[in-house]
Amino acid sequence: MNNYIITIARSFGSGGKEIAAILSEKLGIPYYERQILTMASQASGIDESEFVEVDEKLHGSYLVKSLTKLPTTNVLRPESRAFVSDINLYNIQAKIIEELSNTQSCIIVGKCADYILREKSNVLSVFVEAYTQDCINLIRSRVYVSEERARDMKKRTDKYRTAYYKYYTRGQNWRDSLNYDMFLNTSRISKEKCADIIADAVKIKFGIK
After folding, report:
1. What is the pLDDT of residues 38-67, one digit of tens each?
2. By the number of CB atoms within 10 A of the CB, which of 66, 79, 86, 191 ranks highest?
3. Which CATH number covers residue 135?
4. What's the domain count of the chain?
5. What percent of the chain has pLDDT over 70?
6. With contact defined as beta carbons under 8 Å apart, do 34 and 155 qualify?
7. Whole-prediction pTM value?
8. Which range of residues forms the domain containing residue 80?
9. How many CB atoms lie within 10 A of CB 18?
10. How much is the pLDDT for 43?
């Protein structure tokens, strides 16, 4: 196999991004999260703030029925009036993710990458979770907020991530175990050991020695 991709979806505060960073060091491959937005901006010529806005909030309801009729594989041309629509910005990011999967080994955090690359054989998809209190403790270690505020941040962020995933995958459940190769609970296994497990899974799945 020429290259492989590891996708990491994670609940807020579970430590998925930290695992990606550790794994990047272990395997000697880059990991991408917000960098995807910069790359999409550079590829399309659209201001990066547009991608950030789409990444941070959904415009309208993800339950809008008409959305299910829209194609998700085509990127609109700049002369189109809908060029800076949410769905087109997402499609541009998807193209970047697909290109990465064809050209290099890397780790992609979030961005529905597991769904976008679901039909590719060179992908290992992971979901990282943790008990709520452990997530809250991690959030509070990053930002100086009360426990109540941290709990609210987790609730809102996980709700958003669920909605984002459902919106762009035509109703798929973000936490459905069948979407992933493995689920890891950082309340039971340290982030370092989770990275070790993923690294071992890469070797097993792709026959790397």
Report:
1. 665 555 555 555 545 555 444 443 333 333
2. 191
3. 3.40.50.300
4. 1
5. 74
6. no
7. 0.80
8. 5-206
9. 17
10. 56
